[in-house]
Specification:
about 130 residues; alpha+beta; three-stranded antiparallel β-sheet; 4 helices; 3 strands
Length: about 130
Amino acid sequence: VIIEFKESRPSAYDLYRQRNHEPEAPARRAEEVVTRQRQMQGASSPYLGYAVDGGQSFQVREIGPHDFRVNLAGLKNVRMMEKVAGMQANLLARAHARSVAHAVGLVNPLAHIREPESFCQRVLTFA
C-alpha cells in the first residue's frame, strides 16, 4: 500500500472571494476536502483521511499501483481527447450531484436563485 500525503491549500475560489483567512482555516481545510470527497464517492477507500501538523493539514489517500489512469500516449487525435474529457466531466458532474444529494437532498440548486442565467454567467466568467 502506498499512502500519499497532499497539503490542503486554499481553493482558488476561496482566495478570489477572500474567504477562510482566519488562522485556524488551513488546519480545517483537509478535513473539509475529505468530507466532500467521501460524500461524492459511492464507496470510499479505507485509506482516505486527513492529518494535521501544526497549522497545516494534509489529505491522506491510498495510491494503488493499478489505479485507472488516462494513457496519454494512446490518445491519437483531438477527437479521442475530447471523448476522454467529456467522460471525465460527466463523472465529475455525477459526483457533485451525489454530494449535493447527501448534503441537502434531491433538489435543483438553481431553483432558489432569483436570476439563474445571471448566476451561471458569473460562474462561467469566474472559471
